[in-house]
Every structure is written in C-alpha cells, then in structure tokens.
Amino acid sequence: MFYPKTIKAIRAKISENFGQTLEAEYHNLDKDKMPCAHELAEYILWMCNKAEAIPKTFSNAVVSDLYIGWILRLVEQDLKLWNNATSQALINEDARAGHDTLPLNT
C-alpha cells in the first residue's frame, strides 16, 4: 500500500476531532453546497479506504498520488486539521520508509 503512515495519521486526527463512531461514507461533494465537517470527515475516511485498496504497482503510482493529494487538500484546507508543513512531513516519512511511489535517494 502507498502512504500507510500518512493515512494512519489522517485517521487518527479525524478520530481525535470527530470521535471513533464516524463511518467511512461516500458523500457527493457538490460545489454549490459545502458539506458539513462531519460529512467531509466521513468522505475523507472513505477516500482513505479507497487509497489503501490501490495495489502497489508502477501503473497505480499516479492514481495513489492523486488520491493522497486530494485527501491532504481536504484535511488542510477544508477541515483545517493541520497545515501543509504537517502533510509534507508525513509524506516525507512515508517516502523515507519506501512507501511512496518513488523512494527518496537520501
């Protein structure tokens, strides 16, 4: 799986802010109507489930990157659970552990 540490941190932060009883659920994010924070958190958990299910193959690398980028944008900008620096630190941690699409050479 791609980005397991990042996804784990997202789940933990959502649980911390919304409680353990939150369900992973798809919500149509209508551009004309901003969903409530609870619906958005459920949607993020649903997206995390989808991201975890992406097989770790070269052809799926871009798909995984798109999913994690969209999830992190929602966490940062819409739910405001953390900032971009936190997202970068989590992604870097996954990259150093070889859980990203292209491992860092550092």
What does this structure look like?
There is one protein chain. The chain is an all-alpha fold and 106 residues long. It contains four helices and no strands. It has helices spanning 4-18, 37-52, 61-78, 84-96. The longest helix is centred in the middle third of the chain and has 18 residues, at 61-78. The radius of gyration is 14 Å and the shape is globular.
What's the mean pLDDT score? 87
How many independent structural domains?
1
What is the helix/strand order?
HHHH
Q: Termini separation (Å)? A: 21 Å
SS-derived structural category: mainly alpha
Number of helices: 4
Task: Tell me the β content.
Answer: under 5%
Shape: globular
Give the structure's gist in a few sentences.
The protein is mostly helical. Helix content is 58%, strand content 0%.
